[in-house]
Amino acid sequence: MVGFGLYPESVGLERKDGYWLWTGGPVPPGYAGITLGPLVSIRKRAASNQRLLRHELIHVEQFRRHGVFGFLARYMSTYLRWRLRGYGHLGAYRRIPLEVEADWRSRADQTFQRTDR
Ligand SMILES: [Zn+2]
Questions:
Q1: Is 48:90 a contact under the CB 8 Å cutoff?
Q2: How many CB atoms lie within 10 A of CB 39?
Q3: Beta partners for 22?
Q4: Is residue 117 part of a domain?
Q5: What is the extent of the structural domain holding 35?
Q6: Inter-residue contact 4 to 11 (CB < 8 Å)
Q7: CA of 108 to the centre of ligand 1 (A)
Q8: What is the distance in A from the centroid of ligand 1 to the CA of 43?
Q9: What is the pLDDT of residue 11?
Q10: Per-residue pLDDT, 108
Q11: How far is the CA of 61 from the centre of ligand 1 (A)?
Q12: pTM over 0.90
């Protein structure tokens, strides 16, 4: 947990190297963060979660790789494919290849995940 009064500088929209970080920005229920293009929005309580940030930054890279439309088309089509195969929301979400990559690479150490493509 991050105390609001202790870290006032961590709340709001900040320009970072290659992305924008919006701490306390809009995030869907049940999630700690969301990425759309170069904008990463995370909950205030998740502001110190470095693995979450690494995960969302992989999505920033994926948006760059596929474009916004290409990312969303891949994301939604693979999600729907797993739902149609009978998986629930979480089961389908965890099997989206873009999520698998972000999850796997955000666990790896930073020197590895900084490798350029
Ligand atoms: Zn994700």
A1: no
A2: 16
A3: 13, 41
A4: no
A5: 8-110
A6: yes
A7: 15
A8: 14
A9: 75
A10: 80
A11: 12
A12: no
Q: What backbone torsions phi and psi does residue 27 show, to the nearest 5 degrees?
A: -140, 135
Residues less than 5 Å from ion ligand 1, measured at CB: 99, 102
* Residue 101 within any structural domain of the chain: yes
- What confidence tens digit (pLDDT) does each residue in 17-71 have? 999 999 999 999 999 999 999 999 999 999 999 999 999 999 999 999 999 999 9
Q: Is residue 115 part of a domain?
A: no
Cβ atoms within 10 Å, residue 57: 20
Token pair in block for residue 19: 């992305």
The Cα 36–Cα 58 span in angstroms is 12
Tell how strand 39-42 and strand 33-36 pair up: antiparallel
Centre of ligand 1 from the C-alpha of residue 35, in Å: 8
For residue 3, tell me if it sits in a domain: no
Site of tokens 């693979």: 78
Among residues 23, 12, 16, the alpha carbon closest in space to that of 45 is found at: 23
* Tokens describing residue 37: 């293009």
| Residues in CB range of 62: below 8 A, 6 or more apart | 71, 98, 101, 102
Count of structural domains, the chain: 1
